[in-house]
Amino acid sequence: MVLEQLSEENKNISPIQLETNEQNFLTDLVKETAEFYGVKFCAVTVFGERGVLLLAEYGFGGVKFLDYPFSDPNKCPIRLTCSRPLPVIISDLSKDDRFCDIPCVELDPKLKFYTAVAINFVGPTQGAMFIADVKSNSNFLLQDAYFLKEQANRYQALRANARTGSRR
Q1: Number of CB atoms found within 10 A of residue 92's CB
Q2: pLDDT of 76
Q3: What residues contact 107, with CB distance under 8 A and at least 6 apart?
Q4: CB 119 within 8 A of CB 142
Q5: Which segments of 38-145 does DSSP mark as H helices, in order?
Q6: Interior/surface letters 47-71, b for 16+ CB within 10 angstroms, e for the rest
Q7: Domains of the chain (ranges plus CATH)?
Q8: What are phi and psi of 159, to 5 degrees?
């Protein structure tokens, strides 16, 4: 899979290549994370020209893109996540005025609970790792997001090692 990323040198779009082993790692990572939290959905995302690209997903049934106003942090919980250093925890998206009318909340899969952490990619590429469920969860606390952050850090370490190894 190829991701698009702006090159820092000339501001042109350059590809980020996901090798098979990285894709397999991500697939396992999101499944493990969803199972740890007992939620129906988990994904690792980046933003591309077409919207929110799911690099790996669990529970969405092979969906590759989320279709809603991803450029607006007031309408996109993933974009909101990328703008904050701490995890974002939304116990019920359907009761949050910012997100209650986005398609994945109003329509299938009718997401309610959402928690995410930002993932730092090379350059200006923004992404996140999130868990979500169709049930609200007002008991999820900031410290509960520790495992999610650790999982995101595992992926960031893999990307960093891949970049370092490719330069040798």
Answers
A1: 17
A2: 82
A3: none
A4: no
A5: 77-82, 103-106
A6: bbeebbbbbbbbbbeeeeebebebe
A7: 2-156 (3.30.450.40)
A8: -60, -45
Q: Which residues pair with 13 in a beta bridge?
A: 6
Ramachandran angles phi, psi of 57, nearest 5°: -140, 155
* DSSP H or E segment with residue 149: helix 146-167
Is residue 45 a contact partner of residue 52, using CB atoms and an 8 Å limit? yes
Digit-by-digit pLDDT tens for the chain (168 residues) are 334 433 333 333 333 456 788 889 999 999 999 999 999 999 998 876 667 788 999 999 988 777 665 666 677 888 888 878 899 999 999 999 999 988 889 988 999 999 999 987 766 667 899 999 999 999 999 999 999 999 999 998 888 777 666 554
Picking from 164, 126, 122, the residue whose alpha carbon sits closest to that of residue 9 is 122
User: How far from chain centre, in Å, is Cα 153?
Assistant: 13
**Phi-psi group of 109: left, alpha or beta (phi > 0 → left; psi -120 to 50 → alpha; rest → beta):** alpha
- The answer to whether the beta carbons of residues 49 and 71 sit under 8 Å apart is no
Task: Tell me the pTM.
Answer: 0.83
Q: Please report how the helices 20-37 and 146-167 are oriented relative to each other, as an axis angle in degrees rounded to 10.
A: 170
Neighbours of 27 (CB within 10 A): 15
